[in-house]
Fold this sequence. Notes:
Elements: H1 2-9, H2 13-21, H3 26-46, H4 59-78, H5 97-114, H6 118-127, H7 134-151, H8 168-180
Helix pairs in contact: 1-8, 2-3, 2-7, 3-6, 3-8, 6-7
Amino acid sequence: FVMIGALMFxxxxxxxxxxxxxxxxxxVFGLVGFIIGIVIGVFFLNKNFSLSRAYPxxxxxxxxxxxxxxxxxxxxxxxxxxxxFSEKGPGSMRAxxxxxxxxxxxxxxxxxxxxxxxxxxxxxxxxxxxxHLLTGSIAILVAVLIGTLVTGQFKLxxxxxxxxxxxxxxxxxGMALVGWA
Length: 181
């Protein structure tokens, strides 16, 4: 359901903050929906909703996702012809593999160590009046805003935004589903 909502919005919660920082006002509708979805989720949590207890998984199950990623990485580096790549549009733009991998690993480690969570930040602000986790999302928004202003990429408006549609209702509904799920 999270993926369906993100596809309706054309982005995940992180991309929502990136779009906001770049001036995409369509993302405001997404943010409103996202907050509404999280508030609905908080309502369910307060009514003792639970997905039941977690069960330990085997080592094989834990190793499988990283193993699949390593296989795809090997395919990318050694046999790129077996993978399909976009020929035009935003999907065709790529960073050098080593640079993208290094930035992804460092960014992922920092996000994990700082407990960066867009949903958790808003949830904690609504449920516990604790704004600590929300600071990460705000920092991303401010950094992107500064970066787009400095580079001249800031484009305030609804129309003509990169990989975005202007249907506010579907932007809000998509992110409401993401926030709730």
